[in-house]
Amino acid sequence: MFYVIDVEARVRADHPLRGVRRVVDEILLELGPLLQACYSEVGRPSVPPEMLLKAVLLRRLHTIRSELQLVERLDTDLLFRWFCGLDPAQPVFDATAFTHNRPRLDAHGITAAFFAAVRERARPGRR
Fold first, then answer.
1. Nearest residue to 98 (alpha-carbon basis) of 126, 124, 60
2. Residue 56, Cβ neighbours under 10 Å: how many?
3. Tens digit of pLDDT for each residue in 10-53?
4. DSSP states of 81-113
């Protein structure tokens, strides 16, 4: 069978993650030069660091205990897929993607910069 799913329409207009996603996308745009440094010209394609950062943020927001549980949730939850930019038909990356990419993100200071920006924008009185 073939289904066409408009994931954007499936997420309520007033869902709190809509606002979070807007802010996160702005932050990732600002971090663009740092993120570009993570992409390699050689080797097989990796999971985009933007997707990994969004997934880690979801893990924190929803108090998911492990990366394996997070990947399982990404596999089955349209809201999580929408937030991370995963197509509903796209296979989800393996949980080891976090393990393999964490040193690369940390070496470029991306994880720290991302969460510092998220924390700054979440402060009361900001935006």
1. 60
2. 19
3. 999 999 999 999 999 999 999 999 898 777 777 777 889 999 99
4. HHHHT--TTSPPPPTHHHHHHHHHHHHTTHHHH
Contact 71, 92 (CB under 8 A): yes
Average of pLDDT values for 99-111? 91
Q: What number of residues does the chain have? A: 127
Torsion angle in degrees (nearest 10) through CA of 68, 24, 4, 2: -20
User: What is the spatial distance between Cα 70 and Cα 42, in angstroms, rounded to a whole number?
Assistant: 28
Count of other CB atoms within 10 angstroms of residue 105: 21
List, in order, residues 6 or more apart from 40 with CB less than 8 Å away.
46
Q: How far apart are CA 10 and CA 63, in angstroms?
A: 23
